[in-house]
Amino acid sequence: MFFSLPLLISEDIAALDAAMADLVAGSCSRLALFIDEGGFIVTQQGAAGEMDTATLGALAANSFAATQAIARIIENHSVTSLYQEGDENSLLILSAEDFGFLAVVFPSEIGVGSVKFYGQDTVARICRQLTAARSRAPSEGFDLATLNLADTGPLFHRRVAP
Length: 162
Fold this sequence. Notes:
This protein is α+β, with helices and mostly antiparallel strands. Helices cover 40% and strands 22% of the residues.
């Protein structure tokens, strides 16, 4: 069975958060979200304010999936990012291999090139961490889209002290 995400421990989330915090600070972005392929937010850094990040995550993942489908129709198989320019805020979505997406919200006056520069490094850091997590238990993982939110017991486990 294929899982979009490996089993994650607190050190994995801390590494993802550190990478995304560096991105937000270095690029002067407002918000960075790491989203699984189903559109669920795994973790986020920055100031969301009153932004509906759950909906943003779902729409960003679906928008990227639609763009990839269009690209396949026109025989372009190398879509790695999607950019939406706005009046106040812009959005850059970067593919994180088969793990999901990095969505970055940033002020429109900041050039997308700067955000993409920092974002590519962040995606590389995220993928390295998730690859390491997958190697700890290659046959285990989870897909947030199949979770029963009323019973998260199978997902969260207490760590036993050595």
